[in-house]
Amino acid sequence: MNPADSRAAAPAGLELRRVVQVLTELRAGAARRGSGYRVSGDAVLTAAHVVSDAESVQLRFLTEDGDITELPGEPVWADSTADIAVLRIAGDPSPGGSATAEVPPVRFGRVTRPVDCEALGFPRFKLRPDAASADGADPTWYRDSHHARGETTPLSNLRAGSLEISVDPPEYDPERGRSPWEGMSGAAVCSGGCVIGVVSEHHRSDGLGRLAASQVKRWYRLTQAQIDELNELIGLPAHADELTQLPPPQLSPPTPDTPNPDTPKPDDAPEVQEAARRLARDVDKQWRHERKLRQVYEPFPLAVRFGCTERNVFDHWANILRTPPGTDPDPLPLDDRLDGIVAVYKSIPSSRLVVLGEAGSGKTILTLRFVLDLLNARAPGDRVPVIFGLGSWDPTGTSLDDWMCDQLVRDYPFLAAPAEQGGNLADVLLDEDKILPVLDGFDEIASGLHGAALRAFNHTSTPLLLTSRPAEYSRAVAETRVLARAAVIELADLTVDDYAAYLHRAARPVRDSGEDRSDWEPVLDQLREEPRSAGAANLAEVLTTPLMVGLARTIYSGTPGHHPSELLDTERFTSAKALQDHLLAAFLPAVYDPTPTRRGISRRCRWKPERAERWLGYLATHLDGLSTPERRVHNLAWWELGTTMRRSSRMLIVGFLAALALGVPTGIGNLPVDLVATQYGFEFALVRGLLVGLLHGLVAGLVFGVVYGATSRGGPVEPSRLRIQIFGGSSERNARFASRFLLGLKFGVPAALVLVLIDRGVVGLLGFDDGLGGGLTGAVLFPLELGLGAGLVLGIMAWLEAPIDLGSAVSASDLLSTNRKNVVFHMLVWMLVLGVPAGLGIGLTDVPVRGLPAGPVRGVLVGLVFGLEAAFGGGLGYGLSFTAWGQWVALSRIWLPLTGRLPWAVIAFLDDAHQRGVLRKAGAVYQFRHARLQIHLARVFQAHHTPHRPTSPDVSNPEPSVTGTAS
């Protein structure tokens, strides 16, 4: 049952009719007692350890009069990590008992500050003797109920993630070695009419007055499938932000001195709240999809460990913990595994954390886990964690906020929309402190700028999480200073115990005398038993990073022709580096196995491994071409493909296509005009059409090629974040109209004069003047008409442009589609603006034209001819020279596929490579799975296709991190 169905009847507090004593008979013959709470329908919530290994379960309901109703219970769901279980009430209860009463679903809540709470259960210290039997036998015993009331706070037990419940303790401990709270496990902890947790443990070291409870907010660290099941079984909300906040914001507003980041600020505008909510949803969707594609949880998360670094690269603990002057606090315990990163981060009062790790050590998987876990528990008003790849930031030329604003608009175009208080939504979210920057790849910042970046970070106290390779970060700290108030953790190398079960369960099972084994077992046995042997030592050195473990899993998980034992072959792999190169080289053939067809990819996209490797090698080489000796580039943007070609070559390609765009329609349109409107025959019309088309096309190609060369000096044209909006003009749009109109007039008039000179001079002198030029009047009017038309087209387009709205997607294909639609609309406007006036002018005149009487028909035909010439010559030429989509078509959709460097279906290929785990998405751009793979593919491509080309900058150091580091 959905809780929304009975919200009006939701309980206001703890209810006796829901309380259950759980009696479990174990398979070993012993018994266990616990508590439970009926949360909806026939579902009872309890602790998982209460019913683990149960042979049978009985549920005992009580009334205020002490009457008992006992029914069988059936475990239907449990998770030992969260320590919660769901039981179904079975059997036919007697009428009128507590078990038959209809109960609405409970509400679930999350605690943001200390609150009062209560729980009702059956602890051991409430064990009581019953009346003695009449025959003098020993009395029976029972456990009475205990109503525990106390307080809980979200700031205790951060590492464990449990709620600490402070209650009145029992007066004495009745039995040493056993807790007096035994049997309280499974009791629901309620506050404000909401279930906020389930009692799970009593740590005797905490004393008798404190219990630990599995808190509801932490249940959202379960898999999405498990959360969906709990939603069906007990009405748990599908998302953590739907939990009721306790205490309610309006009841306990934060003071100005102590703002509460978990609640919206009173002055948050609705548009800011909506933008933050939408951004959180898009970020969550983006990285959940990425996690699924990269199979991070298949067969289960790899055991990546981290701990406080031993390097001298972090601030004083007093600054990190923000303690008063004169105090000397103890260090924080920061050692944990990947699934504890959010708890570790939240335990740092300064909310600033640096994560160090070598290439492939799992830094980016950590950031992905951090972002998703933080979003799972996000409440309205919380900061939205967003991953930023630092490689493109120049801290000496752009402020951190300005750069992050540009990245937000690039990856989430709806944030380009104007905000009421000025600027765009991205500006406002940054100004209002609604973004939690997750800065990935500090080491990717250009060499020599690390110190400037650290100084920029230290000019602000903004919470952040930063990742880096240790060497670069240590060097930057030594040259400048530490990152203020930031704790620093370092990822540990993997051991055979960390990845043994991971590789075993991902591989093809081998049944041997009933024992569950896999192809990896002999290899893992040798790594454990003979670690000093040459083969085992090389392999152990390679498998210290999640990247290499992931590659090994992909290549040797049942792929035909591969067996893990070959990795121990010292004759074939003489060193750890040779083994790494082998894994990198074997990765593509393994993922481009032609047998399976991935969902969403058509049959024609079954790329052959050798072709895929060639195309991916070109893409890696293209990124090398964009790199400099100081900085490697990892962002693969569709609008930059082909831009590493020589500028002169690109000018020729763009100019040639622009010449075709105007020349072909002009030549074809000239043919019917001369046949119908003049006395000349077909041969004259054909030759004149070819001549005019060639000359007009030559002019267009020369003009647009030179314009492209001039505009491309500053780098590739980025895609427009604008859409076409017919209504809703403003003074700003009117101003854009005027400036663009003048620009069109300045370019249109000279271009028209050149065309007139060609028609009257070159074409006329060659004897192909058809007499339709209109004499002196036509020579004067045509430049004016074309200049006004071009100005009007550019002005109309400027007036119609508006930022992409909140419903726009962020993927590369969607951004590409938006830009394509804009160019097509541009061509349509050219056609209407120049074609309609020409058609009206010719159609309404009485000038006799042979074979074509005056009237609407003649106007439509002439307008169509002029309109098509304008659409292709002006609109498409403009698109090829000035827009990212036009240059993408010219270079990436035509030239590079013609030369075999890319497939014809480029976006489909990139999406397929993303599906196969070769590439990853970061907003509107792609990136290689890891820099090592990028470097390997570039080297292979250059060795086969450009043997004399010098290696790219910094290729000798194959260790750079990239946003998307570990597999």
UniProtKB/TrEMBL annotation:
Ranges of biased composition (kind: Polar residues): 953-967
Any GO BP annotation: proteolysis
Alphabetical UniProt keywords: Hydrolase, Membrane, Protease, Transmembrane, Transmembrane helix
Domain of life, per lineage: Bacteria
Gene Ontology molecular-function annotations: peptidase activity
Annotated source species: Streptomyces piniterrae
Domain NACHT as annotated: residue spans: 351-447
Identification of the protein by name: Serine protease
Pfam family, one: Trypsin_2
Region called Disordered, residue ranges: 243-272, 946-967
Biased composition, class Pro residues, residue ranges: 246-263
Transmembrane segments: 651-673, 685-711, 741-758, 778-802, 823-844, 864-885
